[in-house]
Amino acid sequence: MVTNCSVRLGRLAAARLAIDWDCIVTAEEAGFYKPDPRPYRLALDRLGVAPHEAAFVAGSGYDLFGTAAVGLRTYWHNRVGLARPDGAPQADLEQPTLDRLVPWLETLA
Question: Mean pLDDT across the stretch 101-109?
Fold first, then answer.
């Protein structure tokens, strides 16, 4: 999880889901807000994986700037059909729901 929240709010948000997160990176820890590439890189470093070994699920089209800068494949969960921000690269897959996420991830394995 990579979030623009503070450490405290990021941990609270992550705890709302019954998921055992492998990595939570906040803007406060990274020293930079998304879409700067450094929070995404910090997550990859903490996970010990290269960008081509990972994928990112974006909730904002602005994530596309940062994920593209580090080489992360990106699924944009564009639930309200927003236009891609000017100059943002295309997501590898853009969908209004998460229905195609798992099948997409399976193609990357």
Answer: 94
* pTM across the whole model: 0.93
Q: What is the DSSP letter of 56?
A: E
Task: In whole angstroms, give the CA distance from residue 100 to residue 69.
Answer: 24
Pick the CATH number of 2-108 from 2.60.40.1120, 3.40.50.1000, 1.10.3720.10, 3.40.50.300: 3.40.50.1000
Which helix (H) or strand (E) segment is 10 a member of? helix 7-15
State the CB neighbour count (10 A cutoff) for residue 63: 23
pLDDT of residue 8: 97
> Identity (one letter) of the amino acid at 91?
A
